Automatic annotation (TrEMBL):
Residues 137-227 form the Phosphoribosyltransferase domain. Belongs to the ComF/GntX family. SUPFAM superfamilies: PRTase-like. This is ComF family protein. CDD domains: PRTases_typeI. Signal peptide: none annotated. PANTHER family: DNA UTILIZATION PROTEIN YHGH.
């Protein structure tokens, strides 16, 4: 353990900054400053009945989803956009991990149960470029707090070769719907699977993942994202 005067000295030379607002962190603060932690736009949708939950409503008539959850509201130019930018483009994997831990803790407190967490897989080309799937650390943090396993390879995104540019919206959606498959159906059969992603926009990707999981034998599927954007 480093003596605290030494930690303070190192902190003066290389101050750790809040991942949301970039202000220097005080001692005892970790990853996010207290102000940001308090002021993040939490949805609290997990406290609502499914009929009142706007994220759940987004999946009505599309695919049966047990729980539809988003931790934060995505607001342009706000803290959440900054956090997600750090996670996706600045190599700040900890953003996903920390938010996953906090959200998992909240969900555990409110008696949410799942058997397995599966992140939405990234397209292999993007994965090669970015070095990691931004949904993985969120899955990992959630799994830690919920004390359940997560499987980075539970779903596979299949490479599709035909160009999407010539297609209309419905055809494009169908194309998205075809690109996921469950890697090992035996590993998800009979389970309540929580599929996770960074941001919820149209929900098409999560819908395709949920459908693939249900088709492969999952008993129930729930979805959770770090943030949800207005459509
Ligand atoms: Zn902050």
């Amino acid at each position: 353990m480093m003596p605290s005067f030494l930690a303070d000295f190192i902190g003066l030379v290389f101050p750790k900054v809040c991942l949301a607002c970039e202000q220097a962190l005080s001692r005892g603060e970790d990853h996010l400053c207290t102000t940001c932690r308090v002021q993040l736009p939490y949805t609290d949708y997990h406290l609502l009945a499914a009929t009142d939950n706007p994220v759940a409503r987004r999946f009505w008539g599309r695919v049966p989803v047990c729980h539809a959850l988003s931790y934060l509201r995505f607001l342009r130019r706000g803290r959440v956009q900054h956090l997600l930018h750090q996670l996706k483009y600045k190599g700040q994997r900890d953003v996903g991990l920390v938010l996953g831990r906090w959200y998992g803790h909240d969900l555990a407190l409110h008696n949410f149960h799942f058997d397995l967490i599966v992140p939405v897989p990234l397209h292999p080309k993007k994965l090669a470029k970015r070095g990691y799937n931004q949904s993985d650390p969120f899955a990992e943090g959630l799994a830690e707090s919920l004390h359940i396993p997560w499987d980075a390879n539970g779903l596979r995104r299949l490479e599709h070769t035909d160009s999407q540019t010539q297609k209309n919206r419905v055809e494009r959606w169908q194309n998205v719907a075809e690109v996921f498959e469950v890697a090992t159906p035996a590993s998800i059969q009979g389970k309540h699977v929580l599929v996770v992603d960074d941001v919820l926009t149209t929900g098409a990707t999560l819908e395709a993942c949920a459908a693939a999981l249900l088709a492969a034998g999952a008993t129930e599927v729930s979805i959770a994202t770090i943030a949800c954007a207005d459509r």
